[in-house]
Specification:
By secondary structure, the chain is of the alpha+beta class. 58% of the residues lie in helices and 16% in strands. The protein is rod-shaped and about 210 Å long.
């Protein structure tokens, strides 16, 4: 509208100027015509004055003549100016005629004044003046026609300019009226919308106030100076301040908070929001000091209140009673502590159970080994010896299974990875079950393919997996059943070991819980399906630790079972075939100190080592062993850990203060932490009960080699 108004004003200005110029041209034309008439009339007046003077000789007639001559000259100058400006065409002929006529009149006067009146009258009678006046009159008429045309043109231009100006005025008025009408409607609509918006805003404020008053959290709203403008009922109950009391008060006065541990004041979240302009939250362990001085654990957050343009208008603080949560957190921590303590107690119990169960097995196995070595027992007793050894070793394995559960659950299972020939490992495990299968009438076969796959595995743990799944097949097979073991390579990066049997089979319910801890596979705990139910659980866990898998399938009860062990393969280049180094090194007699409080174990171990050619001194207390070391020189120390007056750890630490005698720990504690603790204390090796006598023998040989 400003552009339209500006354009209309400028246009009106120029059009108005054009109207004025057109009117000026009309006026100039009128003035020129009047001047032309006056000039022609003055010429006639000059003639009349000259004739009067000639007829009367009275000089009084010369004044009108002279005045007329002045007017004629002025008029001719004005006509000449119009000609010079281009308003009129050239008027040279008329100027010449007028000049000649005036000269003729003046000549007659001059003749009369010089006494030649007859000559002057003779000039008049010649009628030359009348002819010149006709010519002058004709010239004046021509000029009159030009001036009439100029006036008509000026009138037309003035009329057009006036009409255009009038039209511009009318258009401008219409535009202004249209704009005013539009503006009126727009303002009317905006006022209506603002009225509706105001009503809606009031309604929204009412809804917001009701909502904030109804929610379960405390809400405090402040302005940009941190003074409270709103507080809901929950906030009143939590702070102890009524809304009318809190209104206009600094938030830090109503919302007083301290740290639960240090008891120091905590910066108000409202101040933090005003300073940072961002959402903030309270740290843990914050207490609200209520108006009556009581304390309440709370959790809160503060956020800026902003307009659509981003301008901050205040802060909203939302907080809640944290008492129930804190109590639940304390209960959870207490429960966690109790669970951890229970877990530690369980681990300790398993370790103690392992120690107490392993210790009696050592003398039994030692006695069996001694009898087998002497070969002095009757041949009919050999099956009984094998039966006893088999069950003692089974008892030892059950103990190992209990400890493996703890290792697996705590992620402390340590693997000694090597490149292993799967087929060689299967042959070794199958040989362990061959006699049992033959005895029970179960056919056990292994198909050996032409290509041997190799895997990266801990040989002992891989043997444990195979022992469990093949042993499971043997356990649930009866006379006439068959067990087939095969291998395959379904992909270039995998090897599968498949153990299938035609034995008891499994229901779907049994399959669903097969790999769970303590799962028996049957509700009837008879001698055939007995055991702890840990073997398959441990086997699958070990397979997964090796980045493989163990799956089971069955067609149903009485339809046999199939176990599939899948492991990633490796190149055969890293494989070294197992070999047994010949025992060519001489076994020199050593003076050995055996520190063992279990009398049977001490007696049997002494006999075994003496049978190897060593001299053995025994002792059942740490104090006694330390005195013996002071009095005698020993080549090797074998020490139990659980002793009456102190632990074997204390004993070896005391020994290492002065001596570097080779020492081996003998203990029923077989956890990895126990082994690390023994080695860190100063023992050179660790043997877990029941003692593996082949390993004991190798340990003595190693000591012998170091001291040769």
């Amino acid at each position: 509208m400003a552009i339209v108004l500006t354009a209309s004003v400028i246009t009106t200005f120029f059009v108005g100027r054009e109207v004025l110029e057109a009117r000026d041209r009309v006026q100039a034309s009128d003035n020129a015509q009047a001047n032309l008439r006056d000039t022609f009339s003055a010429i006639q007046d000059a003639e009349s004055g000259q004739r009067g003077y000639l007829l009367t000789g009275d000089d009084a007639y010369l004044d009108p003549f002279r005045n007329a001559v002045g007017e004629i000259r002025n008029g001719m100058v004005e006509l000449q100016d119009l000609t010079s400006s281009g308003y009129l065409t050239s008027q040279g002929e008329m100027n010449e005629l007028v000049a000649r006529r005036l000269a003729e009149l003046q000549k007659a006067i001059d003749l009369t004044q010089t006494g030649r009146k007859e000559n002057a009258l003779a000039m008049v009678k010649q009628n030359l003046g009348q002819e010149m006046m006709d010519e002058i009159r004709h010239s004046f008429l021509q000029i009159q026609l030009q001036l009439d045309q100029k006036r008509k043109k000026a009138d037309t231009e003035a009329d057009h300019a006036t009409a255009f100006r009038t039209g511009m005025f009318l258009v401008t008025i219409l535009i202004n009226l249209s704009f005013l009408f539009w503006a009126f409607k727009r303002i009317q609509r905006e006022m209506s919308l603002q009225y509706v918006a105001a009503l809606e805003s009031d309604r929204q404020r009412e809804i917001l106030a009701v909502t904030l008053s109804s929610i379960g959290d405390g809400v405090i709203i402040t302005n940009t100076t941190g003074r409270i403008t709103f507080i809901n009922q929950v906030a009143e109950d939590l702070t102890g301040w009524r809304a009318d009391q809190a209104q206009g008060e600094p938030c830090a006065k109503v919302f007083r908070i301290i740290n639960e541990d240090s008891r120091k004041p905590v910066e108000s979240p409202v101040d933090k929001v005003l300073a940072s302009g961002t959402i903030v939250g309270l740290a843990n362990h914050t207490l609200l000091i209520r108006k009556d001085g009581s304390e309440l654990p709370i959790d809160d957050s503060g956020a800026p209140i902003r307009e659509q343009d981003g301008t901050m208008r205040g802060v909203v603080l939302v907080f809640r009673d944290f008492s129930v949560h804190k109590e639940a957190e304390r209960n959870l921590l207490q429960s966690k502590k109790e669970v951890e303590e229970a877990s530690k107690a369980k681990d300790k119990f398993l370790a103690m159970l392992s120690h107490e169960l392993r210790t009696p097995l050592t003398p039994v196995l030692a006695t069996l080994s001694a009898w087998e070595a002497k070969r002095q027992l009757p041949a009919e007793l050999e099956p009984d010896l094998k039966l006893i050894r088999r069950n003692v070793e089974l008892e030892s394995k059950l103990i190992d299974d209990l400890l493996d559960i703890t290792r697996i659950e705590h992620g402390k299972l340590v693997l000694k990875m090597e490149t292993v020939d799967v087929h060689t490992m299967i042959h070794a495990v199958v040989s362990l079950f061959k006699s049992e299968c033959d005895l029970n009438g179960v056919e056990l076969s292994f198909s050996n393919p032409s290509v041997h796959p190799f895997v990266s595995a801990d040989p002992a743990r891989l043997q444990q997996i195979l022992w469990n799944i093949i042993g499971n097949a043997v356990k649930f097979s009866s006379r006439g059943d068959r067990i087939f073991i095969g291998t395959s390579t379904p992909s270039s990066g995998e090897a599968q070991i498949i153990v299938s049997d035609t034995g008891a089979g499994m229901s779907q319910a049994t399959l669903d819980g097969l790999f769970e801890r303590f799962h028996q596979g049957s509700d009837a705990l008879d001698t055939k399906t007995g055991g702890l139910g840990l073997g398959l659980y441990i086997a699958r866990a070990l397979a997964e630790v090796h980045r493989g898998s163990l799956q089971a399938a069955s067609g149903g009860p009485g339809k046999g079972s199939t176990f599939t062990l899948t492991l990633p393969t490796v190149a055969a280049s890293g494989h070294t075939a197992p070999s047994i180094a010949p025992e060519t090194a001489p076994v020199l007699s050593k003076h050995i100190l055996l520190l063992e409080d279990h009398a049977d174990t001490a007696q049997v171990l002494s006999q075994v080592m003496r049978g190897m050619g060593h001299s053995v001194e025994t002792c059942d207390t740490v104090a006694g062993a330390l005195k013996m070391i002071e009095r005698q020189k020993f080549d090797l120390i074998l020490s139990d850990l659980g002793l009456p007056d102190a632990s074997g750890i204390d004993f070896i630490r005391k020994v290492r203060e002065t001596l570097q005698i080779p020492a081996v720990a003998l203990t029923g504690y077989g956890m990895s932490e126990d082994i690390k603790k023994c080695l860190a204390a100063g023992f050179d090796d660790h043997l877990t009960k029941p003692i593996d006598f082949q390993r004991l023998k190798k340990t003595l040989q190693a000591v012998t080699r170091r001291q040769v």
